[in-house]
Each structure stands twice: as C-alpha cells, then as structure tokens.
Amino acid sequence: MEVDVECHDDKVCVVQLASWSRGLVLDALALEGMLQDLLQPLLGDERVCKVFHGHFNGLTWLCSNFSIVVNPPICDTAANGLWQGGPPSLQTRCRQYLHDALDTQCQD
Fold it and tell me: What is the pLDDT of residues 70-106, one digit of tens each?
C-alpha cells in the first residue's frame, strides 16, 4: 500500500492511500478526531507492506498529529543511495510502475 502524507506547518492536511485496485484521499483536517481510529489498524498491521515516498516526515507527522505508530514492513522509496542522481519523483514512479501519468495540475 502506498502512503503519502501532505502537511503544512507541521499540521497534517491530507493522507493518501493507494493499493493496486483503489485509491483513497482523506481530508485530515475534517477527520482529525477520527483519523487515529481509522488508520492505526491498517498502518500498525505488520502484515501490510507500507510504501512511503520519503517516509521520515510522513511518519513523524502521523505520530505527532494523531499518535499513529506505523509498524514495519515499511519501504522507503526515497532512501538515500538507492538511485544514482537521487530518488525518482512520485510522478516518475507512477509512469514507470502504473503506466499512467500523475495529474499534478491541482498540486501547489
């Protein structure tokens, strides 16, 4: 499962989850009181492989904002030293693995 956490001033705004068959975008500001109950069972399950793109900030924000603890296995797609010239962007990975372009027109 791919996990992406969007934050502004250390406040989680959006959590995006994607599997092979589904994608889900959660408004963390609107679901603030429920997000821990919604996500902890999934993100805490060691049987679920969680793929983060540059996971350090996402893990820190999930823990500090919602007390969510993410248990391994975790794959960090942006780990240092794995790619010559730096890690590929999320858009590049979507094109490479999903054979689909990532629409970023609404992204800041």
Answer: 988 677 666 544 555 666 676 776 777 667 776 666 5
CB of 18 closer than 8 Å to CB of 27: no
Q: Which two tokens stand for residue 101?
A: 């372009």
64 CB-near residues (< 8 Å, 6+ apart)? 10
Neighbours of 20 (CB within 10 A): 7
Find the DSSP H helices in 1-108.
Answer: 35-43, 55-66, 90-93
Separation CA 86–CA 81 (nearest Å):
7
Q: List residues bridging with 12 in a β-sheet.
A: 7
Residues 67 and 32 sit within 8 Å (Cβ to Cβ): no
Task: Provide the token pair at 37.
Answer: 């109950």
